[in-house]
């Protein structure tokens, strides 16, 4: 600019040397040091706190799978002694002790163990498992050779739901004679009866199926199909409704608890869903067993009538007695029980049912607690804390 050529370079009132200015231009800016960032050789390590939600989800999923497996084992194996006691109480019309509460069954179980051994409470377990497997196999086969669905959900149409119920009716009807043979094995006394073989349930079921005519007081299996199928389908539908209602309520409670914590998620984790479905299934099973207990008592007595079965006398636990009944049908059996044994006669052995589900719930809670504690132990406790180093340096 004209008129400024004679002036020296000045910064904040201090004269700058031209040579110094030129030489230090690359390192300084008007006697001020450049501040340059350090080169990043590696990405900063993230804290493991960010991985904690994933670890929690994996642990909850593992706990849900473990609880489901233990619940399945408990349902099919551990609670079988209480099923044996319950059925023996149900079919005994001459029992004076009804065992409506669990406490009365404890001394009886001790006496049975002393007189017959521990195996007496596990009789018929093989046939019970075979019947459950046979039922599942028949349902699977029917679903493959027919358009009837084996499983249903909330999106199932009315037509598909009707076909599903039809599949249940057919499978229950086919298994009925083998169920009757299995029932005999679970209630007959081991003192006065020979121990059956593993596959004898199929032989006895086939014999029961072929007995068309009346033989003494034995009721033909065809006459029992209607009440047997009606009982099975009604119990299944009741349990299905209870399970859906309980699951819905538990889902709503879980979402409300998430909203209170400010962490509402549209899709729940798989572990939470498994836990809700497991508890809903167990509650529905318990509700169905309680609601249909009187009908089960009637049905079991009809199945065993005329089979010449000798059962343990659970009034004392030290003797046996034969089953001698002469019912003409389901309604006659119901009226006879009410008139001769009272209304509570329909609930004989209810204490065993209380023990059955009490043990089931207790095992489930204990398993969940143990698996949760194990998951907590194996969870990574060490957390890497980010301590930012020197990101800038001074070249001066």
Structural write-up:
The protein has helices at residues 18-23, 52-78, 80-90, 105-116, 125-145, 158-187, 200-210, 221-261, 270-291, 293-304, 330-341, 350-378; strands spanning 10-11, 14-15, 28-29, 32-33, 35-37, 310-313, 319-322, 392-394. The protein has 396 residues and is mainly alpha-helical. It has a single domain, classed as Mitochondrial carrier fold (Alpha/alpha barrel), CATH 1.50.40. A hairpin with a 5-residue loop joins strand 6 (310-313) and strand 7 (319-322). Helix 5 runs antiparallel to helix 6 (158-187) and helix 6 packs across helix 7 (200-210).
Ordered list of secondary-structure elements with their pairings:
Layout (H helix, E strand, L loop, with lengths): L9 E2 L2 E2 L2 H6 L4 E2 L2 E2 L1 E3 L14 H27 L1 H11 L14 H12 L8 H21 L12 H30 L12 H11 L10 H41 L8 H22 L1 H12 L5 E4 L5 E4 L7 H12 L8 H29 L13 E3 L2
Antiparallel strand pairs: 1-2, 3-4, 5-8, 6-7
Helix pairs in contact: 2-9, 2-12, 3-12, 5-6, 6-7, 6-8, 8-9, 8-10, 10-11
